[in-house]
Write a structure and sequence with these properties.
Layout lengths: L19 H7 L3 H14 L13 H6 L5 H5 L32
Helix pairs in contact: 1-2
Length: 104
């Protein structure tokens, strides 16, 4: 089964605004948390679904959930897919630095 052919499996409830992940966390059901987390990574791996996991990041860390796959997925960041904007900086002669603005 291809993830792009599967309908949205996990989303917010229209009235309570809770997700199945929120409910599983609230009831401390770690098995369900792992299942929903895996489903999101496998079938809804797109930045537009990050709002389902992002509010629970600290709680997931506190519960010992391994978030390595999450941070390596497409969920937490929007990638620019344009050849004019390479994903890695390739010009070592140009330095990008932060500047401090001094306001009077």
């Amino acid at each position: 089964m291809k993830p792009e052919t599967i309908p949205i499996l996990i989303n917010r409830h229209l009235v309570t605004k809770e997700t199945p992940l929120d409910v599983a966390i609230k009831h401390n059901n770690i098995n369900s948390v792992n299942i929903f987390y895996s489903m999101l990574l496998k079938y809804q791996n797109n930045v537009c679904f990050n709002h389902l996991i992002d509010p629970q990041i600290i709680t997931l860390m506190e519960k010992g959930i391994d978030l390595k796959d999450y941070f390596e997925s497409d969920l937490p960041m929007c990638k620019i897919t344009d050849d004019r904007f390479p994903s890695l900086h390739v010009d070592s002669s140009m330095k990008i630095i932060g500047l401090s603005a001094n306001y009077p």
